[in-house]
Amino acid sequence: MSEVMMDRMSWVDYRSRIEQGNAVVFLPCGSLEQHGPHLPLGVDAMLSTAVAREVAVRVGGIVAPALSYGYKSQPRCGGGQHFPGTTSLDGDHLSQVVRDVIRELARHGVTQVVLVDGHYENQWFLIEGIDLALRDLGVDHAMRIMRTEYWDFCTEEVLGEVFPDGFPGFALEHAAVIETSLMLHFHPELVWMDKIPDVAPVEFPPHDMYPPHTHWVPTSGVLSSARGASAEKGALIVDAVCAGFADAVRREFGG
Amino acid sequence: MSEVMMDRMSWVDYRSRIEQGNAVVFLPCGSLEQHGPHLPLGVDAMLSTAVAREVAVRVGGIVAPALSYGYKSQPRCGGGQHFPGTTSLDGDHLSQVVRDVIRELARHGVTQVVLVDGHYENQWFLIEGIDLALRDLGVDHAMRIMRTEYWDFCTEEVLGEVFPDGFPGFALEHAAVIETSLMLHFHPELVWMDKIPDVAPVEFPPHDMYPPHTHWVPTSGVLSSARGASAEKGALIVDAVCAGFADAVRREFGG
Amino acid sequence: MSEVMMDRMSWVDYRSRIEQGNAVVFLPCGSLEQHGPHLPLGVDAMLSTAVAREVAVRVGGIVAPALSYGYKSQPRCGGGQHFPGTTSLDGDHLSQVVRDVIRELARHGVTQVVLVDGHYENQWFLIEGIDLALRDLGVDHAMRIMRTEYWDFCTEEVLGEVFPDGFPGFALEHAAVIETSLMLHFHPELVWMDKIPDVAPVEFPPHDMYPPHTHWVPTSGVLSSARGASAEKGALIVDAVCAGFADAVRREFGG
Amino acid sequence: MSEVMMDRMSWVDYRSRIEQGNAVVFLPCGSLEQHGPHLPLGVDAMLSTAVAREVAVRVGGIVAPALSYGYKSQPRCGGGQHFPGTTSLDGDHLSQVVRDVIRELARHGVTQVVLVDGHYENQWFLIEGIDLALRDLGVDHAMRIMRTEYWDFCTEEVLGEVFPDGFPGFALEHAAVIETSLMLHFHPELVWMDKIPDVAPVEFPPHDMYPPHTHWVPTSGVLSSARGASAEKGALIVDAVCAGFADAVRREFGG
Amino acid sequence: MSEVMMDRMSWVDYRSRIEQGNAVVFLPCGSLEQHGPHLPLGVDAMLSTAVAREVAVRVGGIVAPALSYGYKSQPRCGGGQHFPGTTSLDGDHLSQVVRDVIRELARHGVTQVVLVDGHYENQWFLIEGIDLALRDLGVDHAMRIMRTEYWDFCTEEVLGEVFPDGFPGFALEHAAVIETSLMLHFHPELVWMDKIPDVAPVEFPPHDMYPPHTHWVPTSGVLSSARGASAEKGALIVDAVCAGFADAVRREFGG
Amino acid sequence: MSEVMMDRMSWVDYRSRIEQGNAVVFLPCGSLEQHGPHLPLGVDAMLSTAVAREVAVRVGGIVAPALSYGYKSQPRCGGGQHFPGTTSLDGDHLSQVVRDVIRELARHGVTQVVLVDGHYENQWFLIEGIDLALRDLGVDHAMRIMRTEYWDFCTEEVLGEVFPDGFPGFALEHAAVIETSLMLHFHPELVWMDKIPDVAPVEFPPHDMYPPHTHWVPTSGVLSSARGASAEKGALIVDAVCAGFADAVRREFGG
B21 to chain F nearest CA, in Å? Predict the structure, then answer.
């Protein structure tokens, strides 16, 4: 199997891949953010990279190095900025990095880019970075960009199997069953099952407060329990997500 | 041996390390840049991370995720921006990311940070990012920051052994003997010795031209030959650099 | 009843309100965005202002002038930027305006601010503006900021009454039953019921494409039908939202 | 009479207006700024909108929502930033909003835009916003932009009638006879005649001081008395200004 | 007489001057802008520097190097950006340079700064630079800043002598009698009297157009004739301006 | 000899020079920075201007006004920011000024620009300014830009004569033999030979510290002694540098 990770290719090999035409470059977008006592800080970059890699293998794509730092963690989806270890960028700075990377890929001749977001808080700053890059390239440029939170490719069927008692929604799935299962699948040595906290799903009011009410967030940083996680569930999710994701890439970009 | 990579620690473990006091956090600063046909695009991030890791192990430090994208490649030190694969950031965007990361580390309680630069072109935008972060923190903040191009810790003795015919200077050491030897030491599977180009050391005039004269740069992207590289030389350089680097860290930060 | 709209108060009256202590200032955050053929472009500013006013009357607050321009419309929640009339700001510019307004309110002595978002796409740039403003003010400043999309205060009960056949979710509620009902309640002269398009709820795939696939969006710009809208439903929603909103303000800010 | 306010049109109606060709879009540029104890904080947005509306009616134009927040108030023309209620933007942020709005109007197909400034301090940041937008659009774009402080269309004759004892100059006309008369004409319910302060025209030295000498400014915030204001004078001024303004628009843009 | 030009002092001498207390640092703010066929492009930097120097001599001040590039030339006061040679900065960039210089002077211990503007178009971007610098320094900082267009210190009496037929106003005094007389006084070798164009005072309408109507501006770039200029008038103006300016500096800053 | 300084030409004369074709415009890039007790703060602007002027005379070029303020002084090459008098810009602000000036020169019809850097710390921010300007101009623009630190044109032969005991390297040549000799050649009245400090060449470790260790830098601010400086050496260096520089300009730009 040929290399899919861009940082592990020589520029000559990379050029060949681009010159063959139809290359799709995946940009994983992660964060450095608390993920409870049982998962490491780098989960979002690791998982978005792992998913990007799986999909790239299926569609013959290339995976650029992940953005390791993401937008500021919010209490209702990532626990908030008050946790030590969470290391975040200002929104505009994240957007500008995305803008630069896309513009550079365009210079290489790439016209098909996929942003694989693994950190919910990144979403709008990725959108803005894409929009600014497309403005730079001009309305007639061939560049087309796909963007997604990778978990959205999970099917209802799989969610039903993973959450036999009902799916609490992606909002609380921070360091919970899905991410923990995926880490058990991809990086089992970085999951400390004995440290999973016992936590009832957090309920947030319909408003945010700034500076955040830290008492709204469990001291563990986990928003709903990861107790139900398993490597098997991880494999199930990966299969569903990557199949759907690869299909969508093929549909959008041909090949 | 305990974990040194920050993205592989849980936030709880990271907090413990910070609370013990005297923690030193290393930030490797790389690039995605052509390194000839015999080395991968990610060399600078890989080597700055590897060196940071070695030094962190010696001084009990922590290594944050590398900045995988760096400042624009220049013909005289990195070959230039015209190579496919080279993927660079605007200077201010790089500085702002550095500023954000330092400010976040300060929020965690970290007061000792080391920027380990593995990409020559990054230097001044790292300096600016540091200056802006220190301005944000205020003149009375305890934060102290060390910054270096890691190869500057190499001793004259080792340079003499590595270059028996004389050291051509760091300026041309892009994808040449030092970086290739280090990659043979740290990531031998990512060095393709049979692809090393035969190139006489490039001589540049005392001025730059923009848009760059691409004919000033060998088509391989290599500025002087890597033929003399070996894993043994890599080990020699690593030992010298890491010893000197660790000493400097201890001298500056105690411990 | 005394004036609640800040732009209709003299500075002397405004100062009195602030000096009495406990003043809460509401900042409605709108957009200029297509809302189908049956609603005007200014819906989001009008509704966020109207709701802010209702709540301000209940809690003795002050309503600052709305931000009339918002972040870029997205296909899946606002139809997208390709519609004539949709007039949007770059994300950073929106954040900076929010930052400036909050910093100025702080200079007046205000320490309780509520951002009332009426345009889903604004959310993260408002969050960033708040974060930047709080950084400017310093960690010891008394400023506390509430932020919400106003419709999130709608109760399950009311949603049940408004959508007897089941609530399709807020995602598709652009220019649909809720916004149309609210406009019928607050600005009936600006609703053209005979122009409501017949549209089945749009289904979006789990990814975005840029430049947007305009064929994913109905040519009317409406994502699900507004046929079920009525002034009565508008009144029902307003009552529920404003009651819940005012309670939350009182709980957070006292008074 | 057909609608002239853009935020009250549906996107379909707006599109028709643009497609008819020759549409002129007016952007009122206001502020939220103290205007003495007898006028409300929103005077500049209200008056620039009212004038824009009158002129738009005469020339068949469209009025976009006003910029409700403007540049920082200066002692010699607006009293200064030390008054509670005055809520201002950084200059660059104001320019960027103007840039964005113009670029969006160009996307709609608009090529004739009029910035109607109602706040003297805005002037140069509007100019910069226009220049940046035109740079974005490129030198060959058809966009043409008119910009004015609306009061400059007042004739010498009318000024003679309004100020029988001699016109003190626009510099001191902050919250004074002209603005008060215009408010009596357009929004009489927002003028509190009994609160007009007795103030001799302020004389400023030929230099500014920062931080401002607040003692240079009357505590009322009024720079010369509004005692001579009347609704009749307001009508007189409006007639002269709008006639001259509409003529200029027709001359520049045809129609 | 001791040196007043900062760039001609050693840092040791500069430090002595600052340590004596009460030092006033003047920052001349110029431009590179067409000044007709009879005056050089650098007039604004030359004259603001010359005036600053005269005043600094009188009050024992220090003159920092001029800002040689200013804000964009406008038709009604500087002829416009379409003239070759006119070389201008974006407004924000000018403001940021001013901000940086003031912050650096504050670091040196300077608390009294005078911005001497010689280019009308600079005014508001200087004001913004000052405001941003003062925000950086914090509300409790001792820094006080004076700002002026130097010609505003000219007395009515002198204007009467210089313009025996009536003063047309500063607006048209671009490359006209005042600037030409001042150049004849300070830099006679850079005035080419035989090239002074014959031009009636230009009359501008009450609005601006962008892109500028270049036909509104005489092809010479001169807005009213400089025929009446003389070195004697230059001396007269200098005496009046510098006397008034020095008095104001003494009044504001003591000494 | 005709005028070479742009700020001393009328716009009409400047236009003639540009219209003749092949004009080369030099932009000297200086700083305001301590240069020991024996040299003035403005050395870098003075010397880069003087060298630019000499070269411009030889090649028929034009010298734009120097950038008088540069990037932040670093201990190892300029002594550091802790010296009073050193007055520096943020890196991005310097880059933006360069970007603006180049874009304006392009508007004049200039396609050959030379940045003459006289302050080592400026280098990378000039490079970035050039890159941003070229991006603005578009890939098809004819603009070509040369950039250099002027001293790099000094020949080995001359260095041998100037440093009979061996050349310590440019790194320590701050306010040392080369700059002092050049000042003795160009501005002897601004060199105070009796104040030259006795200082052994400073040795810096392979890393930087921030905030800087001020004890690493001699209190005089001089990094190696200027004792060997003389006007004769200055003449020698000027001849060599300007000859090489002019040759390079002719080679790159023809003529």
Answer: 20
Is C203 tagged catalytic? no
Task: Mark the ranges of chain B whose per-residue pLDDT is less than 70.
Answer: 1, 255
* Cα–Cα dist D167/A49, whole Å: 71
Q: Is C89 in Cβ contact with D97 (below 8 Å)?
A: yes
Chain A residue with Cα closest to C117: A207
Q: What angle do CA A189, A86, C122 make, to 5 degrees?
A: 125
CA atoms within 13 A on the CB side of B178: 28
> In this structure, are strands B144-149 and F208-210 parallel, antiparallel, or unpaired?
antiparallel
pTM value > 0.90: yes
Q: Examine residue C1 and state whether it is found in any structural domain, yes or no.
A: no
Let me know if chains D and B touch, i.e. at least 3 Cβ pairs under 8 angstroms.
no
A188-192: average pLDDT: 98
Within the 15-74 window of chain E, which residues sit less than 8 Å (CB to CB) from chain D? 71-72, 74
Nearest partner of E63 among E101, E103, E21, judged by Cα: E101
- Among residues B174, B105, B172, the alpha carbon closest in space to that of B144 is found at B105
Question: How many domains does chain E divide into?
Answer: 1
Q: Look at the block and give the residue holding tokens 């300014």.
A: F129
Provide CB contacts within 8 A for D151, sequence distance 6+.
Answer: D170, D173, D178, D237, D241
- Structural domain of E232: 6-253
- Quote the minimal CA–CA distance from C110 to chain A in Å: 15
Q: Which residues contact C183 (CB under 8 A, 6 or more apart)?
A: C39, C43, C46, C47, C190, C191, C234
**Which positions in chain D touch E132 (Cβ < 8 Å)?**
90
Q: Is B248 domain-assigned?
A: yes
E87 neighbourhood in chain F, CB within 8 Å: 64, 101, 104-105, 108
Q: Is residue B41 part of a domain?
A: yes
How many other C-beta atoms lie within 10 A of the C-beta of residue C123?
A: 20
Which residue in D210, D213, D247 has the most chain E C-beta atoms within 10 A of its own C-beta, making it the best mutation to test that interface? Answer: D210
Nearest-angstrom CA–CA distance, B16 and A84: 10
Q: What is the CATH number of the domain that holds B151?
A: 3.40.50.10310
- CB distance C88 to C33 below 8 Å: yes
Judge: E12–F65 Cβ closer than 8 Å, yes or no.
no
List all residues 6 or more positions away from F122 whose beta carbon is below 8 Å from its beta carbon.
F29, F31, F67, F70, F71, F94
Does residue E1 lie in a domain region?
A: no
Residue D178 to residue D168: CA distance in whole angstroms: 11
Quote the ipTM score.
0.97
DSSP letters along B38-86, please? TS-TTHHHHHHHHHHHHHHHHHT-EEPPPB--EEPP-HHHH--TTSTT-
Residues B164-202 have pLDDT tens digits of 998 988 878 899 999 999 999 999 999 999 999 998 899
Cα dihedral: E123, E124, E126, E128 (round 10): 170
Q: Among this protein's residues, is C215 annotated catalytic?
A: no
Q: Which residues contact D91 (CB under 8 A, 6 or more apart)?
A: D71, D72, D124, D125, D128, E91, E92, E95, E124, E125, E128
